Amino acid sequence: MSELIQHIINGLAAGTIYALVALGYTMVYGVLKLINFAHGDVMMVGVYVGYASAKQMGRATSQSFLGVCLTFLVAMAACAAIGFLIERFAYRPLREKPKLTALITAIGMSFFISYSFQVETKIGGLTLLPGAAPKAFPEIIQPTEWLVIGDRAIVLWNWQVISVLIAVALMAALQFLVFKTRFGMAMRAVSFDHRTAGLMGIPVDRVIAGTFMLGSALAAGAGILYALKDTLVQPLMGVTVGLKAFVAAVIGGIGHVPGAVVGALALGLVEEFVVGYGSSTWRDAVAFAFLIVVLLFKPEGIFGKVTAEKV
Amino acid sequence: MSEPTGLLHVDRATMQFGGLTALSDFSLDVKKGDLQGLIGPNGAGKTTAFNVMTGVYAPTSGRVVVAGEVMNGRLPHQVNRAGLARTFQNIRLFKELTALDNVKVACLADDRPPQSLFSRHRVDADRREGRFLLAHTRDAWGNYLDWWRTFLQTSGFRSDEARIEARAHHLLGVLGLSHRADELARNLPYGEQRRLEIARALATSPKVLLLDEPAAGMNTREKAELMGLITSIKNDFGLGVLLIEHDMKLVMGICEKITVLDHGETIAVGTPAEVKANPKVIEAYLGVESKELQA
Amino acid sequence: MPGILRGLLPFAVAVPVLLAVQLLTADAPFFVILSLTVGVNVVLAVSLNIINGMTGQFSIGHAGFMAVGAYIAGVVSKVLSEYGIAFLPEGVSDQLLYAISLLVGAVAAAAFGFLVGLPSLRLKGDYLAIVTLGFGEIIRVVVQNTELFGKALGLSGVPQRTTFFSCWLLVVLVVVVAWRIRRSTHGRALLAIREDEIAAEAMGVNTTAYKVRAFVVASFFAGLAGGVFAHYQSIVAPSSFTFVKSMEVVVMVVAGGLGSTTGAIVAAVFLTLLPEALRSLFLQLSGDGTMAQMVEQIRMPIYGLLLVVIMLVRPQGLFGTRELWEVGPFKRLFGEKR
Lengths: 311, 295, 338
Fold this sequence. Notes:
heterotrimer, B: alpha/beta, Rossmann fold, 4-stranded antiparallel sheet, 43% helix, globular, C: mainly alpha, 14 helices, 0% strand, disordered C terminus
């Protein structure tokens, strides 16, 4: 029983992180009908930016409340900028082209980012690209056990709670943004029909750019939380997390914001159970197997809407 | 059960999408040699009716019967095989293929020699008599053999290809497109694209032809020519034809029987004269010059 | 000339040519290995082109089919290597058993192709792409966890049976098959599905069945490629069949032109030879191999960048959807009237 609870805790904690990344995928798909394969890699860049800023601040500063906030904010800002650039120069020119073209571009972008980060590049004393060797993310939040039940039967770590809190806060902020602000309404309009939205006077380009930046910023936050959890960071981390978060978004119904969260939590739990009660070597296959099962029964995802093509 | 009333028989078909009823209690009969019209204001459900008849949508209730076989639940390609062919409101040609290839694709319908064990005739006979598993197996094996004949380029394959080529050329000729055979479909002028769609539909050896606004975008002379062409095709190939058209003069002039839809409901059925005089029809078209109806 | 004999003509020409090349290059192992690598990639690209190019689907897990073929053929081959066919000389017997292993591997791959193609009934475009990706990944994880396949270290000790001749005979086979499919009812049906699936369906094309068949044919050949690969690598490791490998093949098909078999061949050859050439060049230049290593590292980001640039600048790739016989001077060579 206690093992079950531990697994549930771990699964949910992981799930909230996936959720933050999945939200980016689902929002971008909503407005652009594009699977941004590079999303996970933008997250990875954010993690490294966070790494660099934490290192710059030095141990003491980086572990202070201000330091932690700063690390997050810098990473999120950097990712927002990168997201903007990618959308502007790689995706916008292809907006009217067949979706396949944009999908291939996205995959290419993903490879470009993740693999160029594998090539260690130093100019002067400055490390531009980190290289493939895994690095330890600075412990800006010292791991401490907050709740121990029984004889370490159930352990609740501080970073798990903080992680969930931050994730929930970000999601709540997003929810507010999407449903209570004009920008959010514009986003939703563009996701229904971007041509009509444009005709109604909505600055489609800006809305899409904004959506990208928003999703990327969330991913950065998620990435740092993930780095705190796993400690080691390496350039290909974005690929795995990205794929799983993407799977979560599809399971929930791609384009459906709450669906992404539900899908991510479900995936976090399923993964944790498989690894916990089965074997950890099957971890990477779980996400896809889960996906295929869901898609076979409900091709549009749990909350997805069936979009019929007009004949 | 055989339906004696003709090639295409729609029995009170209703199509509901969630809360929206796009088509309600729609019935229609097309016999060999018929030239019928389906009209109605925009959004009346005409194309939905086509989609229901051709199997793109499964009707929420009601039946579609083609050449005596009930079509409910059948996929569009099966409905096509049963004898129903269509063109599309927004031209759906295979853009990157040549005009000839566009027609050749549709010549699938008769590519196996009739005497072979796996011929279309036997498959269709099986299906008609309810031996679905046998039909499916025959079809699958027939196709499997087809692939092998293609890989090995047997003489059977070559003669099939020659036959398809000849037939496609013939159909292009019927629609006056012989000079365009090797032109990419997307390079054809608009009017010729519409005619190509008709040629392609004809290639599937249909019994009933459903034409969705075949004259859209054409000028008066072209329309008249097209209508003459459709009538002669109907007679030469022994088909029944159902037209969706917006041009009132055209429809009234050429169709023997017209069905009028509005908001999914059938508001009138009859000869052009009867329909023109029908007050409900005039009302539905309010906003349109009534003299258009009386032309 | 009766049909089937004319059908076998390309092979009648290819066999002696390939045998000749094999004899001539017997003493140039570097060339042979290189040609095998190129050959395998050509088979992968041409087969993937059937799904992605001709049928217009998006399959990004092709390495998975290759893996199935490699592993199954490898295991079967190892088992069979204990035996020999009594009345045949050893060399011939070996090759025959090799052929059988390849076939078994390819059939297994085709079976998976069937399974992966089935969801195409309900899933379109992006979704189908994700399923193919998922399939590739699942295969890799399954193999990594299975004792029989050697887990993460891979399957070792696969007898080395691949020769230049057998590999390139396979290349000729897949190219001939692809060309013949293209110029037949089936090819036209596949192209129609690519162009407009709804219209194709309305014209009597059983679109789902054809999509599945495209997957089956393509995965069969990918399986053969995998088997050939296994029999010269001798070690079959899961790291050879990652998503990256699948995307490498996608790059080849896209760069060559989606739908063009000729394009796929040209791109596969070029994109396989280029990094090798660069690597040799740098090895010559700097001797200690660091620059050569750099080639390997830079290859991936360049692939990514290449994809992006191609899509932005020339999405139709090199040949677009055209084949060699449709282009200028070659029209008459291949006797145009089709």
